[in-house]
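Workshop exercise sheet. Pairs work together: one partner reads the sequence aloud, the other fills in the structure field after running the prediction. Swap roles for the next sheet.
Pair: D.N. / O.F.
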Amino acid sequence: MPKIYNIPAGTDLTEGILTIARREKLETAGIAAIGGVSRLRIGYFNSSLKKYEEHNYEGFFEVTSLIGNLSIKDGEPFLHLHGTFGKRDMSVIGGHVVSASIFPLLEVVITPTDNRALRMFDEKLGLNTIQRIEPM
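Structure field:
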């Protein structure tokens, strides 16, 4: 059953969601959120180089869409998020979320699944991918 959470200002976005996952003992779930952030770091996966090109942004950004999933990697919760972030001039930037500081808040909906997704590093792709799905 989905639950909604409010994460306060000053919290690291990824750590805030992972803290909820650990507290609620969630292993695999869908994530969706809206709110605001500052000190944003997002990446674009360069498939030729098999690595993320990361970019830093300062200032306030409206979280227009944040979507992703929670899985297990090396026995620990692992978060994979992509987002679009609105600027004051109504333009947006987006990509793979590396980090962000929440401001003024983030409203997160976490939808647990009825299976476990296990993530491992895929040498061919150069990414941590879901490679095994197990029943709960």
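Discussion prompt: Residues 3-135 form a domain with the 60s Ribosomal Protein L30; Chain: A; fold (CATH 3.30.1330.80). What would you look at next?
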